[in-house]
Design goal:
This protein is mostly helical and 280 residues long. The protein has twelve helices and no strands. Helix 6 packs antiparallel against helix 9. The longest helix has 42 residues.
Length: 280
């Protein structure tokens, strides 16, 4: 009798687990796996519906440079974002600055397209930044630099837009560090910079890793900011190529091939994130 009850409890526990997991699995299957499989199959068909790898060959031939440019911009932006987030989050953790914390989190509530337009206005040849520089008289007003339509403008916009989310994730980890440990380090003469880089950052590698994965994939799939800031006549972000092929050329096979390549490029970050979850 006791053995029968034990088997019954195990069955109901397993059924409850399946019931809890089913909605999440269904959402992933319907909203991610199903569209991805359709996109992958479409990328293997020519416009004449013939199975082929020609779309991938054409994608790398036409947009290989754009792929490297996209990865480079995302990597540089991510490194700057991690540095800025660690420093700002560290100082906010070691002191009480609620107004500054709110200001740094404002990008959380600003849409990507608004950030792109704001950077376009701020960094344009006759924008806010150059107007302020011109007042100093140190530069020729007719030869002021333009950052808006350059890689620098793109990196600045991506870093600022993702700063709010990154700070939210990292600051939570920093605040979980025991205050007594920090006080002991202060007693040994450690300053704020040493507390940040020798204590807060090493003790929150997992939080910083999760933040890096989420923001990197967000940068990789960003469309609005590159669309607003342009490409300065050189390479452009891969999402712009996808948009061009699907909307203007109606070449859905090539557009889906670009989408699959972007997905594969973000797989490394996703694998790191899943490995981090499995260790907990």
């Amino acid at each position: 009798m006791r053995k029968t009850n034990s088997h019954s409890n195990v069955f109901w526990h397993q059924a409850a687990g399946v019931g809890l997991a089913t909605p999440a699995i269904a959402v992933v299957a319907l909203l991610f796996m199903y569209p991805f499989v359709l996109s992958f199959l479409s990328s293997l068909r020519s416009q004449e519906q013939v199975w082929t790898l020609a779309n991938y060959v054409e994608a790398f031939s036409l947009y290989g440079g754009d792929l490297l440019f996209t990865l480079w911009v995302c990597a540089v932006s991510l490194v700057l974002l991690i540095g800025c987030t660690a420093m700002i989050g560290g100082f906010l953790r070691l002191g009480a600055y609620p107004v500054l914390e709110f200001i740094f989190k404002i990008p959380l509530f600003v849409p990507f397209v608004v950030v792109g337009h704001a950077m376009r206005v701020f960094l344009a040849p006759h924008g806010t930044l150059n107007s302020a520089i011109a007042i100093t008289g140190w530069f020729n007003p007719d030869m002021l630099p333009s950052f808006a339509f350059s890689t620098l403008g793109l990196v600045a916009a991506l870093v600022w837009k993702n700063l709010g989310l990154a700070l939210l994730l990292v600051l939570g980890g920093f605040r979980s560090v025991n205050e007594g440990m920090l006080e002991a380090a202060r007693g040994m003469g450690a300053g704020k910079l040493r507390l940040i880089w020798h204590f807060l950052v090493p003790m929150n590698k997992s939080s910083i890793g999760v933040m890096a994965v989420l923001t990197f994939t967000s940068m990789l799939g960003c469309f609005s900011i590159p669309a607003m800031l342009g490409n300065a006549g050189g390479h452009q972000m891969l999402m712009m190529d996808l948009y061009h092929q699907s909307v203007y050329q109606h070449n859905y096979g090539l557009a889906n091939a670009i989408g699959v390549i972007t997905y594969v490029a973000s797989m490394g970050a996703a694998i790191y994130y899943l490995k981090g979850l499995s260790k907990k």
